[in-house]
Amino acid sequence: MNLRTRTLVYAAVAFVLLLLPAALSPVLGGDRLATHLAERNEPPSWSHPFGTDWLGRDMFARSMKGLALSLGVGLTAALASGFIAGALGLMAATLGKTADRVITWLIDLFLSVPHLVLLLLIAFVTGGGAKGVIIAVAVTHWPSLARLIRAETLQLKSSEFILVSRHIGRSNWWIARRHLLPLLWPQFIVGTLLLFPHAILHEAAITFLGMGLSPHQPAIGIILSESMRYLSTGMWWLAFFPGLCLVVLVRSFDVLAGSVHALVDPSRSQE
Given this model, what pLDDT does residue 269 score? Predict the structure, then answer.
């Protein structure tokens, strides 16, 4: 296989792994998440691949539910953060020096504050829960992508074809819509995809620390937080399998983003 074919295969495998929790979550409900005290604290087996917890709940079903929930939260937060980054990056590069200074100052401000502290503070102020996590992640993850889009836009503005369009009287809006946006679209897609793993990991971190999703929801952060109390008793499967699933999910996002970048990059797309 050539490089393009291998990239397509990697992207397809990563996409399937990402869809798996969302596809299995509706099927693995009901009785598998119910309390079965007679089956509590069972190690991994054929009937319970990830074992059971201290209430007899199937850990495979809980893990898939948690990953599906994390996917939904991460997707919403990453899209919102990507939209903020794209808008502010374009504004900084096209609305003059005053707007550029203000937005650059905002980027530096958000990057200078410890990330987890800012996430916890915003989640606490917005009331926690799914809404608080989404707002916290969306508001804190845009600066790096905004800086990238600003730099790309400033480089494109000095291109010859844009100078010609400006010389013949085209407006800034026309240039942005016809020239800048089509060329910035690949960076926006890949940048937003790369925000997904950060969003999922930080959602799990906030939830693990008790400022995220409700304890009644089978989120990965809640599962890992609850499992800490039972690791010393030898119930290793309560943390190992959910943590492994989280790592695989995050790695799949990285592979998918890298594959998409290789496919849309003009210098690499025909290899």
Answer: 47
N-term to C-term CA, the chain = 11
| Amino acid residing at 217 | Q
Report d(CA 204, CA 67) in Å as an integer: 10
What's the token pair of residue 85? 């980054």
Q: How many residues does the chain have?
A: 271
Enter the pTM of the model.
Answer: 0.77
Q: State whether the Cα torsion 224-227-229-233 is positive or negative.
A: negative
Closest-CA residue to 134 (of 82, 193, 199, 198): 199
pLDDT in tens, 173-203: 777 777 777 778 878 887 887 888 888 888 8
Helix/strand/coil percent split, the chain, to 5: 75, 0, 25
Check residue 209 and give its pLDDT.
76
Per-residue CA distances from 189 to 53, 82, 148, 208, 255 (Å): 39, 9, 12, 29, 14
